[in-house]
């Protein structure tokens, strides 16, 4: 077994251990804050990024061209973002938010390690050998890592009734989307379109993946207008944040496996 | 008039249109696009097929189901942008122009998209090394070489067309490598390495030992004779050639080793030909500007809002 497989397995194990510790501390509520779980999460992120770096060296190109690598990168960014959220002592819902995001990272790595996903590090085919592709994928996943946080906070929002708690959760959802949205816009739409023009001579083809990325962007655009312009702080923005994340996940997985198109290798 | 202005600048209209576009776009990814009416009738029940055919949903992005709401969205966006910009400019301080830049970018994107999709032209040509093609401005693009690089496991690594462009007998571009993801921009045209195919080529030996390689459909002049390689014969063992000299011409089938005029057939070879696509998209520069505005506007909007804690 090669080193990066060991590292990937170690990252998965560290993340599982972090999640288990977080569950323990969620119920125990000790006097001193837990330092081990965040450290494990950060170690997991570092290991995943090291896996991507090692694969990059092996294939001679930045290893963000397969589903496995994309999932590893997304999980790593979610871990880093969760770690940063975990450091915000003022946040009332810090443990819940961090735990939710950690669990979603666990799901990503579980999917990545499943037999459904090919794990072989292969050099990219000519269509994928582009710097724009790397910008497209990396910016998109950084944006989507914040959408993971917004999904968790929106779900907690929908599960609580208390007005003050809801206000705080609404603020968290909004800030996560406000950070993620520019990254997603630049990555999924702007860099994606530039790459498409360079590779295929058409910057937009209404390919299912493009269309679903646009739908995801429209849902988050609707969220921001409902939240910022209409100033709604009820369940509607949170529901839109949840729908937005479902679209995000479908754009990544569903389109690849259910709707064939130009991105069927991605 | 006021009612109309209120309606066209209303946020409810914007949200309604966003919701409509999102839902219909999703449906358009589920209903296969661009099929014939009969294909939809085979695929779906009578009622659903009738609905798809009658509404034009099979070509959703070119149908009024998409175009009218998209136009309305553009009108709503433009009206809101102007209204917001005027309001911001009246402020003495605390202006936020991020959303204005973002909305102007979106407006430019819609205009650029219409321009791009209506003005987009493309055509493709298959060239074997040595072949040329005339360009609209009178220049000639010639394929000097084509390489198909593979990884050790046999997977494709790169398809490279080496091309040159000559205009009025003078070289304009020489030995440019055209790759996937690395197109050649020349005038209003962009050339893409789009595909490749293996074509038959005929190897001929000259009287002085020189070797010529003729692609199918290519001719060669040696002395007074022109040799035109038509195709391999049906079983692929012989070459069918048209040999002409002045007004006389004859078609011959020749096997390797046989003499044809002054030349000798050496054999049939496989040869790669490059599929090169030429695209003209007059709207793309505006689309690029629009995208830059969108990226700057989005970042500016939320950087400012988060800084202000809004």
Structural account:
- The complex is a heterodimer of chains A (266) and B (310).
- Chain A is built from 8 helices and no strands.
- Chain A has 266 residues and is mainly α.
- Chain A folds into 2 domains: 1-124; 139-266, no CATH class.
- In chain A, helix 1 (3-28) packs antiparallel against helix 4 and helix 7 (208-229) runs antiparallel to helix 8.
- The relative contact order of chain A is 0.10.
- Chain B is α+β, with helices and mostly antiparallel strands.
- Chain B has a domain at 122-280.
- In chain B, strands 1, 6, 7, 8, 13 and 14 form a 6-stranded antiparallel sheet that branches.
- Chain B starts with a helix and ends with a helix.
- Chains A and B meet through helix 6 and helix 7 of A and helix 2, strand 4, strand 7 and helix 7 of B.
Quick structural overview:
Chain A is built from 8 helices and no strands. With 266 residues, chain A is mainly α.
Order of helices and strands of chain A: HHHHHHHH
Q: What is the count of helical runs of chain B?
A: 7
Largest sheet of chain B: 6 strands, antiparallel
Radius of gyration of chain B: 29 Å
Any idea how many domains of chain A? Answer: 2
Query: On the 0-100 scale, what is the average pLDDT of chain B?
Result: 92
Write down the secondary-structure element order of chain B.
Answer: HHHHHHEEEEEEEEEEEEEEH
Percent of residues in β-strands of chain B: 35-45%
Q: Would you identify the regions of chain A where 5 or more consecutive residues have pLDDT less than 50?
A: none
